[in-house]
Amino acid sequence: MAITRRSPRRREVLDVLRAAAGPLGVTETAERIGVHPNTVRFHLDALVAEGLVERRIEEPSGPGRPRTVYVPQPGMDRGGTRGYRLLAQILLSQLASRGPEARSAATEAGRAWGRYLVDPLPPFREPTAEEAVGRLVALLDDLGFDPVPEGSGAGEPPERIRLRHCPFLELAEEYGSLVCPVHLGLMQGALTELRAPLTATGLEPFAEPDSCLAHVRPLTSLDVP
């Protein structure tokens, strides 16, 4: 369900339904708010479409026609605000308190997610360097880094990948010593999962005012798989 900012009137309609002892009709809801029934009907229809309110037909206890009533769906309201950046700041500040080991822990977390997120190759097939970089670039693009490979010669893989956008820019400015290692680890983990013949060796945060640079090179016998 898409998370949207709900209008004050629609939230008021929902609050009235939640505070009621039982189902309410359009007229009853309108009377409790003090607005025209047509206004309430519009918001009730929208709340039903959002899955927050259920429309029911209530049979009369005696003579008369059935009436349409509304009840709130159980569960927490998903229309409120979110604080994911605050959550990230809380977790990063806790990680930073671990001292010298925090950076390596951030890198390892990135590697684990890189292995998980990259689009895998078929089994028993070793990719070329160009193919592996292509899959890495596709992953970085999906994550919002706006990557551009650079420095490749004819038939050679790129020497670096320019990252023209940081999806965690404000966090990187505040906690660059942790966020940037996560990014580097993510690239390393993805290349490891692909069984690529190259690795990411470093990340230059804000190497230029408008971008960061990730450096890649072929694997050597000294590299740990």
UniProtKB/TrEMBL annotation:
Where is the HTH arsR-type domain positioned along the sequence?
5-97
The record's annotation in SMART domains points to:
HTH_ARSR
Q: Superkingdom of the source?
A: Bacteria
Q: Which CDD domains match?
A: HTH_ARSR
Q: A Pfam family name for this chain? A: HTH_20
**MF-aspect GO terms:** DNA-binding transcription factor activity
Question: Gene3D superfamilies this protein is in?
Answer: Winged helix-like DNA-binding domain superfamily/Winged helix DNA-binding domain
Instruction: Output this protein's name.
Output: Transcriptional regulator
* Organism, as annotated: Streptomyces spiralis
Organism lineage string: Bacteria, Bacillati, Actinomycetota, Actinomycetes, Kitasatosporales
